[in-house]
Amino acid sequence: MKNITVDKSQAQTKQPGNEYEMHPTPVTIRQSYKGSEKLKNKIVLLTGGDSGIGKSIAVHFAREGANIALVYFNEEQDAEHTKLEVENEGQQCFLIKGDIKNEQFCISAVENTITRFGSLNCIINNAAMQFPEDNIEHIKTENLRTTFETNIFPYFYMVKAAIKYLKSEDTIINTTSVTAYRGSEHLIDYASTKGAIVSFTRSLSKSLAQKGIRVNAVAPGPIWTPLIPATFNGEDLEKFGKDVPLGRPGQPAEVGPAYVYLASIDSSYMTGQVLHINGGEIIGG
């Protein structure tokens, strides 16, 4: 992937942001990516799947033969476009609109997926929010609560609701972040939730190992998604991703294949692990 020139004047006023408003538009999947039925007939429930990394996951999984139940908040245009892209791959995409902070909604999302497709093979917890603040004293209690209730609580809700439908060789994949490992002075609460996701992944993997259900995670670095213009602007936006060894932000298309690997038989001897896709930043763990 080539470096991108970010229009630093763009700004979005609400999260999680709209992909159709971004300049440049994120790359969802490489034209050269060829599916090989790695996920043929698999049923996947994906949160935050309307845009960014989630959209890339949905399209890659569809190219590999999976049908998608796609959970989104209120990004109608992005969600419909992702649905169209999944259908263009010859697969089904079932849109589920709602707020994952509500446990009952998460339960309903799982049940509606079962009603629509008859089974469930993979849960991908991906949705997230962030509210940058340079000083812990400036973190609003409301934003702190929203960050935790969006970024980690639904991981529990979804798995609790879905676990009775999952069987041996099925998978759970969680989206954490490089900030869980190196920290972030301006995303203290967000980084804390991402650290919790790492611990959740490791602990849940041990809990479900005897059932043959594998649990892994992906820790992206700076990826060009709607969350970025929705939370940064000006010079911060222009500098985004340029401080990693590869010198540029990543594209969603560079992250999606990692989820394919973790959901497929190719990773059959992997559980409790985190894949680091961060432009070359060396971190522990």
TrEMBL record:
CDD domains, sorted? SDR_c1 (cd05355)
Q: Which InterPro entries does the entry link to?
A: NAD(P)-bd_dom_sf, Sc_DH/Rdtase_CS, SDR_fam
Superkingdom of origin: Bacteria
Q: Does the keyword Oxidoreductase apply?
A: yes
| Positions with biased composition (Polar residues) | 1-16
Please report a single Pfam family linked to this protein.
Answer: adh_short_C2
Any one Gene Ontology MF annotation carried by this entry is: oxidoreductase activity, acting on CH-OH group of donors
Instruction: Determine if Metal-binding is one of this entry's keywords.
Output: no
Task: Give the protein family.
Answer: Belongs to the short-chain dehydrogenases/reductases (SDR) family.
Which keywords annotate this record? Oxidoreductase
Q: What is this protein called?
A: NAD(P)-dependent dehydrogenase, short-chain alcohol dehydrogenase family
Q: Where is this region: Disordered?
A: 1-23
